[in-house]
User: Fold this.
Amino acid sequence: ALLSAPFLSTQMFAAECATGTSPAAGCTIDVSNTTYTLTGDLGSTALFEVIEFGNGANFNTLNLLGNITTANADAIYFRDSDSNTISMTGNITTTLLGATGIKLSRGSRANVIDLFGNITTGEDSQAIVLGNTNDNTITVIGNLTTSANAAAGIGLTTASDNTVNITGNINNDGSGITMIEGEGNAINVTGNIDTADTNADGVDMENTDSNTINITGNVTTINSSANGFILFDANRNTINLTGNITTSESDSLGIDVRGDSNTTTINGNISTTGATSSGMFLRGNSNTTTINGNISTTKDDSLGIDLSLLGSNTTTINGNISTTGATSS
Assistant:
C-alpha cells in the first residue's frame, strides 16, 4: 500500500527480528535456518504485518511469549516461506477491517504453528486463513472469535493437505469453517461452533474434495440462510460430528449435501425452528449419511429429510423424526 511521503521510509516494513525483548511494532524474518526467542507483547497500528515470514524465509524457529495486537494488518503472515515453526503463548487480537490473526499464502508450505491462546479479530477479519498453500499444520488451544459476516473462524481457499486443530470454541458473526476449492485438508475441532449473521453457516464447503472434518461439540446458527453444514459441489469428503446441530431462522438446513460420495456421521440431534428449514437435504449420488439421534423441525415447509431431488444415496437414521409445521413430513 502507498503511504504519504513523510511516512514512506519508516512505516513500510518492520525491522528484522532478533532474539530478546519483542519489538513493540513487530518484526520480519527474511533469512533461513535461524532460531528466534522473543519475550514481550507486540503491537502495531501500521500497515505491515506484526510478524512476517518473507519470501524464501525457510527452516526458521520462532518462540514467542507474549500477546500480539494489531489494528490494520495481519498478526502473523507467511509469504512464500516453507518449513518454519512457531510456538506462541499469548493471545492474538486484531481490530479493523481485513486484519487476519494467522495467514499463510502465496505457496507457503510445511509450516507448523502452535498457539496457546485465543484469536479475536475485528470487522470482516478471519481468525485463520490458508490460501494457495499446502502441507501446513496449525494447532490452537484457545477460542476463535470474529466479527461481521465475511469473517470465518477458519478459511481455506485453494489450499490442500493442510491440518488445523482447534481445542476451543469458534464463536463468529460469519461462518465457522469455510473451504473453497483445494483438497485433502483435515480440520479437527474440540469445542462448539456458533454463528450469528445471515448466510453464516457452521461449516461451508464449496468445490472442494477429499477433506475430513471432525467436530466434538455443538454447531448452532441463529440467523437466516445459515445452515449447520453445507457441501456444494463437494465430493468424497468425510464429516464426523459428535454433538447437536441447531438452526433457528428460515432457510437454514441442518445438513445440506450437494455432491457425490460424501460420508457424514452425526452422533447427536438435528433441530431446526425456522420456516423452509429441513433437517437434511440430499442432492447427488453415492453419499452415505448416518444420524445417531433425532431430527425435529417445527415450521412450515420443513421436512425431516428432503429427498425431492432423487439420487442413489444411503441414509440411516437411528432415532426419531418429528415435523410439526404445515406441508412438512
Notes: The chain is about 0% helix and 45% strand. The radius of gyration is 21 Å.
